[in-house]
Predict the 3D structure of the following.
Amino acid sequence: MKKVLIIGALGMLGHDLLRIFAKGYDVIGLDKENVDITRQGATRKAIKEISPAVVINAAGYTDVDGCEKKMHKAFVINAEGSKNVAKGCRDNGAKLVYISTDYIFDGEKGSPYREDDPANPLNIYGESKLMGERYIEELLDDFLIVRTQWLYGKHGRNFVETILALAAERDIIEVVHDQRGSPTYTTDLSKAIAALVRKDLKGTFHVSNSGSCSWYDFAFEIVRLAGASGVEIVPVSSSSLNRAAKRPLYSVFNRQRLEQEAGIKMRPWQEALQDYFYSRGR
């Protein structure tokens, strides 16, 4: 049975990756308590000892506003840490799957982003993840870069749970209306990654649930599914929030490569969100 190592296994995505890859693989999960990817020697040693056929790097510093304030931490984890994992894969002939982001784009295109569209990140988080991508492309031939966006899942803080918590406390919730993307359920993302690995594909793929919406639209659907009829969702502009990191206003993915080369068709984000509600028992 092929051995798969998941780094960042206790994160929101990592939990679902462990569950999905347990069906058909000898899967091992490590988190920062087991391996610190910012330490090159320890990272390469861990990969050598486990000797996996595939390494999935789901670790990262994902606090987008926090990255603006802690730039060094962002680059050490997201860029240098990713390089250390890539070197460990190179040493041991393992395939690397790297989880990246829509924030490598500036949102100016106005139509769905293809994998080969020029990157131009607006924030430190996007810059650090893009640098991680570049290191991997330089060091490895056998890799998958999986760009995704707007993640939510059962095992971590996410937008769905934030809106539900606010809906329990407030009658009015202000939500940004001028950023557009595709909410993506970590279970669906994990299944897509498993399919890409099973087909032994290489290169960069855009993976998100299908369809697109604003954060306002997303919040409205969350409140509707929760039956919180007394809560009003009020649209506000991105500029009114005065956040540390600038976000792209449009980051919808073109998933044509995923569909044509991998044969993977992602379901609509609304359907995935309904399943998430069922899985959490509400």
Summary: The domain at 3-154+183-208+251-267 is CATH 3.40.50.720 (Rossmann fold).
